[in-house]
Amino acid sequence: MKNYLFGIMLAASLPAWAAAPTDADLKGGAKTPGEIATYGMGYDLQRHSPLKQVNKANVKRLVPVWNLSLSNNYPQETQPLVIDGVMYATTTDATVAVDAVSGRQLWRTPVTLPQDVHAVTCCGSHNRGVAAYDGKLFRGTLDAFVVALDMKTGKELWRQQAADYKDGYSITGAPLVADGVLITGISGGEFGTRGFLDGWDPATGKHLWHRFTTAGPDEPGGDTWVGDNYLRGGGPTWLTGSYDPDLDLVYWGVGNGGPWNPALRNAGDKPHDDLYICSALAIKPKTGEIVWHYQFSPNDPYDYDGTNELILADLQVGGAPHKVIIQANRNGFFYVLDRATGALLAANPFVDKITWAKGIDLKSGRPIDSDITTQVRNTPEMDKPVEIWPSALGGKNWSPMSYDPHSHLAFANTLNFGYPYRTEKQEHVRGQWFLAMDLNGWTWPEDGKRGYLRAIDPLTGKSKWKVGFDVPNFGGVLSTDGGLVFTGALTGEFMAFDAANGKKLWQFQTGSGIVGIPITWERNGRQYITIASGIGGVYALFGGDERLKNVPPGGSLWTFALYDAK
Ligand code: CA
């Protein structure tokens, strides 16, 4: 009897059992630099670390401490997590757990994919990472499943189908856990699909909510579509959102309209906005309810997905502190939005050449079309191409930038080329590309620099410094309190730059091209930096760049540290 009573008392006094990472761990972000518990190195997606053991003065002594094969030739776009000394990374065909300090693989769980799935992705077969919560890992698959694995063993715990890959749907982005809900996006904007977000119960996989990202006729925004175009209207959600726990809002970017040719989505000469293509959505994680939206590129003709990372920052705007979202949009403008209301605070070019718009009107929040864009919106079948800058790959592609909360600078790999653009007619066929335009090469810049790494002031869009690259970079960016900016090249070099002036301080050849996302973390007093290597992605596939023909494929993880740190 005594023992029985003691048991009840003990049970009542213990908190609900929860395994790492907990909600508090996910909120830790830069305050817990030993744990990289989320995609983005924090809910704010800032990708800036307070670690400074590796700094400007000693980065020359940075050496590899281990390298691990990922056993395939797919593009490695993953951002690893590091939780309690174990690293978790994804590739298209597997999830792996690695002892973070020694580099020894602890388990590898394969993803079994149907043979024909690789034909129904737009831009290569890749995966950008896992979410972790309560002892479980969550990832998407190329055939549009959401899978939960046991963090200790890699054993599959549940799987749910988000969509049918035969329609052109896939999942490539890392999931997000916010307020105890697992949120996943979807790819497939080039296939005439209808985009959405899903909410799942992380414990069981139970489907909690489904939020389409093109508005139906009975919903707010439904009148921005002609007829039933919204059913094939795009609006994919292929990159991971950010989360503000205080406002309890998740911010998620929405991609291009389907088809790209906007005249086929319009009626007569009247452009339709086609909500919520190319927008930022603020949603409640528990329900998927849309609290506000801001549309970057209404009626977008150019594949200017609004999916790029929506970074949370605190900025002085007009002399007052503001909680904002910043985004370097594919359309070439750098946006600052109030994150409570979605109000536009600033929108300025961050690239040197934009031909599609003359600017963004701050009052209405809408772009001011150039004459070329007015013509494009009204011409379902164009005789001759027009020259559009930035190209369909954008002024910045998906690879995430970092943001330093002390200097208030964003560090981004930006692109510097245009493309010839000509609309044509096309009928939608299930599971096939649906652009309704002639994609025919690129317009290269006169200076030969197809990409620039830039340090950008969010409020003006101006670059404090920029470094040009003949072959543009498609790797993610990491910055640190050591005054360093890390990123990778498609030709394989992992590089460190001085955050104050862009001077290159260090590089290491990783053996294949880099399209992955760097992280830094610490363990037992030593700072480590990790990057996945393995060429692929949209520019390697479609850029036609001869300089990449001798860059071999082959995925691996590299981890670096100062050779003389303890
Ligand atoms: Ca797209």
General description of the model:
- By secondary structure, the chain is mainly β.
- It has one domain: 8 Propeller (Methanol Dehydrogenase, Chain A), CATH 2.140.10.
- It is 5% helix and 35% strand.
- Strand 15 (242-244) and strand 16 (249-253) form a beta hairpin.
- It is globular, with a radius of gyration of 23 Å.
- Bound molecules: calcium ion (CA).
- Residues 189-190, 255-256, 303, 305 line the site of calcium ion.
Features:
566 residues, mainly beta, Methanol Dehydrogenase, Chain A, five-stranded mixed beta sheet, four-stranded antiparallel beta sheet, 4 helices, 38 strands, 5% helix, 35% strand, binds calcium ion
Fold topology:
Layout: H1 2-13, H2 23-28, E1 48-49, E2 62-69, E3 81-83, E4 86-91, E5 94-99, E6 105-110, E7 131-133, E8 136-140, E9 145-150, E10 156-161, E11 176-178, E12 181-184, E13 196-200, E14 207-212, E15 242-244, E16 249-253, E17 279-283, E18 290-295, E19 311-317, E20 320-328, E21 333-338, E22 344-349, E23 357-361, E24 366-369, H3 371-377, E25 386-388, E26 402-404, E27 409-415, E28 419-423, E29 437-439, E30 451-456, E31 463-469, E32 478-480, E33 484-488, E34 493-498, E35 504-509, E36 519-523, E37 526-533, H4 538-542, E38 556-562
Parallel strand pairs: 1-32
Antiparallel strand pairs: 2-38, 3-4, 4-5, 5-6, 7-8, 8-9, 9-10, 11-12, 12-13, 13-14, 15-16, 16-17, 17-18, 19-20, 20-21, 21-22, 23-24, 25-28, 26-27, 27-30, 28-29, 30-31, 32-33, 33-34, 34-35, 36-37, 37-38
Bound molecules: calcium ion.
Across the major sheet, the strand order is 1-32-33-34-35
How many DSSP helices? 4
Helices and strands: which structural class? mainly beta
User: How many distinct domains?
Assistant: 1
Number of strands: 38
| Main beta-sheet annotation | 5 strands, mixed
Low-confidence stretches: 7-15
- The CATH superfamily is known as Quinoprotein alcohol dehydrogenase-like superfamily
Helix content: under 10%
